[in-house]
Predict the structure.
Amino acid sequence: DPELCKEVGIKKFKSISNRSLPSAFSGSPLGQKGLFSTRDARWSAMRNAIVSLYQPSHLASLIPTMQTYIKSSADHISSNITEDINMSILSHKLSTDIIGQAAFGVNFGLLDAENKANKDCDDQNEVTEFIKEHMYATTSLKMDLSGSFSIILGLLVPILHKPFRQILKTIPGTADRKIHQTNLKLSKRVDEIVAKRASEKSRSSKDFLSVVLNANDTDKASRQLFTPDYISALTYEHLLAGSTSTAFTISSALYLISKHPEVEKKLLEEIDRFDPHDKTLNADELHNNFPYLDQVIKEAMRIHTGSPLVARQTSQKVEIGGYILPKNTWVWIAPEVLHKDPKHFPEPNVFRPERFDPACEEEKKRHPYAFIPFGIGPRMCIGQKFSLQEIKLTLIHLYSRYIFRHSHKMESPIEFDYGVVVNFKNGVKIRAIKRVNN
Ligand code: HEM
């Protein structure tokens, strides 16, 4: 109910996590550092400290960096043009490299196979190992029966999650133990990156980690709030939040566009009209010249919604839709259920980007909260603009050079893994076809 959302959503709910599996995350480096237990006050301060990084002017300054990584991934496609490409893996590397630079100020060099001498890390193997573990950690927080038992239990009965995890993590062979050990290693590595950066005398002001450490250097209050552990947890959160869902959206868009030639045709016309081949777009051009691409991305996020659940906890007793929810009740929203509601999206399973055209009746009539891939309210995704910029730049660059077709190894119907972020179970497998004259 719109009125209720307005009234209740903002005023009476306190948000306690991001997309948001508190019990699942409490086993991750975030939870181990106590992020969720105390995070509200500190998180608001942190959001304020870093919000400038997500403002249009800073995002615009990231375009050339993003373009460099995007070009590397296109070059990778070019050298594998006769083979199947697992777009899920390639886009995960791309988005991890980009967020590595933006959040840590570190070049992970995942796309750059030749990059043996990484400037920011003494040992390239360390970086590769770190990322492998990061990828394991992001994919192992599952919500089905193949995931950790304590996580599944925590979803059903949150109070049981912690004690069960404590027991299960000591038992060899359990997913809980594997996750625990991976998280310990990840935590240690993030701590090392943070400690190294903290010891540097001059830091840039362009990445998340440096901005927070700079604030700590100059401000005593900030030092008390942002302990080294807390900074590590947040830096890791950025890596986690910034890579998987962006990668999922890029591969989902490619999967859907490849299946719909009429959408592909219209999109290519828009991209070619602007002729962005090998050109660095500026923020205004990116924002204004690709309205159909905007619709395609929204529709891809609607059909395949990356965040399965968003959570809130009531900060006081409240009545919603005739139900009385006591204080501290967990409320879970499943955005994809909203996104498939035929009331707001007629023929919900049809991929039709035009339904997001601002001139279209369906779009005009739709409730503003019917489409919430980035969550909603004061705790909605802080990286929304960052990721949309990255996704747009990637699709423009790739489609100015190639079109894509599903590999014959691509399963149909496609299968999903439900984790903290949804993922394609076996990846999006495609073949690239070089476009004439490009
Ligand atoms: C397509 C890409 C992305 C999607 C679909 C997505 C989705 C979401 C969702 C649904 C939430 C929870 C919002 C809520 O509770 O209302 C969230 C939170 C968050 N996201 Fe994203 N996200 C994406 C990309 C990013 C990127 C690139 C970053 C970092 C650069 C990022 C950083 C965060 C952070 C830090 C939070 C927690 C915010 C808070 O708790 O105040 N996300 N995201």
Q: What stands out?
A: Residues 15, 18-20, 47, 99, 237-238, 241-242, 245-246, 249, 306-307, 310, 373-377, 379-383, 386-387 surround protoporphyrin IX containing FE (CB under 6 Å).
